Each structure stands twice: as structure tokens, then as C-alpha cells.
Amino acid sequence: MMSNVHIIYTGGTIGMVDSPQGLVPGADLAGWLAGLLPPDRPAAPGLEALGSTTLTALEPLIDSSNATPESWQAIVDEVRAHASGHPDEPIVVLHGTDTMAYTSAALSYALAGLGAPVVITGSQLPLGAEGSDAEANVLGALRAAVSGRVNGVALFFGGLLLAGGRATKSSSWDLMGFASPVAPPLSRAASDSGPWEWTADVGGAGSSVPSITRAAPRPYARHDVVVIDMVPGITGARAAALLDPLPEAVILRAFGVGNVPSDEPGLVEAIARAIRAGTAVIIASQCHQAEVILGHYATGDAIARAGAVGAADMTLEAAYAKAQFLLAQGLTGTALAEAMGHPIAGELSPRR
Ligand code: ASP
């Protein structure tokens, strides 16, 4: 069966051109796409099922470093508006790479249960630049979108198809710029034209959809979620200052399985005070591959007893976007902290 695909262009290097201030959006993306996908094109491998494509540009086109939760919502709104007239039609989102993993996680929560696959991609080099990865990534994302094997939101980049809530930008220059440090890729392209190797579990994105996301979720807005890194030598006074004024939620990037400098005078107390005042404190890890287990060491137990919760094996991007999503749904404090541990769209593994 042929499948039309709707493409949503949000900005990013893929459509940028040089300016005196550096790269800015400005390329003729519509013209480039028309050249890439002429109506009489011979069926490229994996694209036999691709029908026609439509394109919407979300104005203003942005460098994704300027993205906010409102930008995520603009994409969600466009996806839902398109899906209401064309249910089940796959969607490809073109996006800057810098915050693409945040957006893919955010979309996976807000679009859980949508029914149509959504595949996000971008490129390290602008379209038309020598050696650009734009063409390979767009064709790969289209291939994933019409494959019939993607459930939920996925990210295609550098030959890898990753679950939307599991991806992280791993390189600022390599054409394989994204990784999924904990979960295996959904698929791997050995070459642009060859067959793809799919893993057995292709439902990782969108596999578990709790009731909070079944009804139309409330829109993303900008909530005050702060990310704080632990470093050797951080003082209790600095930690307290970073928590003043109190944010709605804290993602605290701790060491290893979730350990903090608990001998540092006032540090655990500053975190405990924030929790008592109604801030959700979520402990993530600075390790790319981690499963946070608070209480494995005494240095993590102290904050667990204060009421902090672990981010399990979520990436920073997945945890941050999830805190924003749950705050938008009206959850705060301990209810928010508790909800962080339940998977919405395959972003977190059940406790081993
Ligand atoms: N700064 C660009 C962006 O995120 C980088 C890229 O697209 O690769 O929009």
C-alpha cells in the first residue's frame, strides 16, 4: 500500500545558509525536496511504498538551540492538525540537531497513542554542502516512516533509527551524531541502499501508554525545571544558591548510580529543603549508560531519604522533557516525582 508522508520543517542546519553572523535558516528546502523526490522517481530501496509528500514550514524557522517547550508544542499541534485530516499518515519532522533529542522525547510523550509514526531527523551539514548528510538522513527518515514498523516517535540519524525517548546527541561533528546509550537502536542501516537490520522489539517507542496520555494531553508551556550537575568540590552554599528561587522540579545529575557529595556540609540539607518546600527532585546520572539506584551507596541513600527519586535509565533529555510534560499535566511535588518512574513512551526500562 502506498503511503503519503507529511513533512514538518522546523529549522536547523539542514536548511541553513552562510551569513556574516554564521549559519542561519534560508535554504530553499522545498525546492531541494522537490528535486530529491520527483514524482517520476524510480523507487529507491525501502521507499517503494512512498507516495507523495506534503511540506509545512513552522515559521519562524529556528536554530534548535532556541527551542523551548512552546516550540515542542507547535510541532505537536501541527502533527495533530495534520493527523485529524489524514489519520495514520506518517510524519517526518526536520529539526536542528542540537536539541533534537529533547524534542523527540517531548513528542513521544505528547503524541503517545497517536497511531501515525513520527520520525524526526536533521543533518550535521547543510543540504547541498559537500559531503552533506542531509539527503541520506531525509531519505532514511522517510524510509522509516513508511516501513510500517515504527510505533510512536523515532529519531533517524546517521543510519540509526532510535526510539524517540532514548536518543542523545553524541557528537557535534560526526555524521553518526546520535546514540541510544541504554536501549538498542530500533534499526540499523548497513548502507543507504541496502537492507536494514531491525531489532526484535520495534515497539520501544510508544509501547506503554498510561491513561494520563490517552486523553488529549495539556499543552507544553515553559515550566521552571533546572538541571544541576554535581562536581567534586561543590559546596552546600552553592547548591542552596542554585535552588533559590525554588524551581518546580530539579534534575540533579549525580555521579554513577546516583551518588552526591553527602559529606559536604549543607548539601543534602539544601536538597531536602527544596523537597519539603514542594519541589520534585529527580536524580539522574552523569554516566551515559546508567541505571540510577539510590541507596546502593550511603552517598545516594541520604538524598533518597530526603525524598529524591531516581531517573532509572532515562537520558537527561528524556527526563527533562518528561518533567516538563508532567508539569504541563498539572502534577507537582511528590506526585510529579512519583510519576517520573512510570514509562510513558518507552523512555525508561522497568526496574530489573
Ligand atoms: N545549531 C543547529 C541546530 O540545532 C545545529 C544543527 O542543526 O545541526 O539547529
Automatic annotation (TrEMBL):
SMART domains tied to this protein: Asparaginase
PROSITE patterns in alphabetical order: ASN_GLN_ASE_1 (PS00144), ASN_GLN_ASE_3 (PS51732)
Location of the active site: T13
Recorded superkingdom: Bacteria
Pfam families referenced in this protein's UniProt entry, alphabetically: Asparaginase, Asparaginase_C
UniProt record similarity statement: Belongs to the asparaginase 1 family.
PANTHER family in alphabetical order: 60 KDA LYSOPHOSPHOLIPASE, L-ASPARAGINASE
Protein name: asparaginase
Gene source species: Actinomyces denticolens
